[in-house]
Amino acid sequence: MTSKLILLLSVFGVIPNAMLPKSPVNIDVCPRSSRKSETSYMMAEYGDGLITRIDEGNWKEVLSGEWLLLLCSSHRPKCGDWKAVLYQLASTSMGCLDVDLAFGDLSTNFWLRGRFSAFREANVYHVLDGEFRRLSSSQDTNSLHNLLLLREWSEIPPMSLWLHPTSKWSTFAEIILKTTMDLKHLDIFGRNAWKTALILDLIFFIVTPYILWLSIMTSTENMVENDDTLYEFELAPTKTSIPLFMKSTSKFKSHLIYLKKLRQMRESKFKSI
């Protein structure tokens, strides 16, 4: 009870954060500490904060529950700053919210860029039951804590469906990036990276329109199938009726004839004047 009271006082700024214990396990108010994931690991470079590392085998874990997800290249300075923020949320009482923390290293798992549309230097997402929201990379520990505690993330619009990690576009982008890395490691095109990039760009610009065309055609066919009954009822020809396309053609021809006659009448009036 005392520990929970201390936590509430710290949330409202009554007690400075520096006076709080640094280990959430010791004060026993962090629910995340009691449900350690099999894929969780300890971030040795910062301490004992519990953060889940995202890779090819477990990235779907973030599709269920509430997560704060960080994707960046570990060798980038900005990524180091963000990892420190993530650790502080995990290892201090400020992180005692029922939100899981996850980190994906883009330098070792480059394909994550395509899967999560993570093309910025630091990509931060709030995820709730598979609904992704991209957060500003200018956030700090305090603003992130308030965003999670006060549910300010609800004011941020979710990502578009075509950018969702489970969309066809994201799957295709992941395949392209994995192919890029495989070709680079196989050294098929030599050590000139621009050759690999050029070939993959050609594949991208050829295959992408085809996939979009297939998606449009599939959605159109589904719409037609759903409205089949209505069309059959309205357009079903009888033995004495004329097919619809013939009616449309005849109407179009008659309209052209009318316009032609009208033009001739105007020309004749003009000549008579």
UniProtKB/TrEMBL annotation:
**What is the species listed in this Swiss-Prot or TrEMBL entry?**
Drosophila simulans (Fruit fly)
Q: Give the location in the cell.
A: Endoplasmic reticulum membrane
Q: Which UniProt keywords apply?
A: Disulfide bond, Electron transport, Endoplasmic reticulum, Membrane, Redox-active center, Signal, Transmembrane, Transmembrane helix, Transport
Q: Specify the signal sequence span.
A: 1-21
> What stretches pass through the bilayer?
193-213
Coiled coil regions, renumbered to chain = none
Record's Gene Ontology CC terms? Answer: endoplasmic reticulum membrane
What InterPro entries has UniProt attached to this entry? TMX_domain-containing
Q: What is this protein called?
A: GD14338
Query: What broad class describes the main subcellular location of this protein?
Result: endoplasmic reticulum
User: What is the topology of this protein in the membrane according to its UniProt annotation?
Assistant: Single-pass membrane protein
Gene designation: Dsim\GD14338
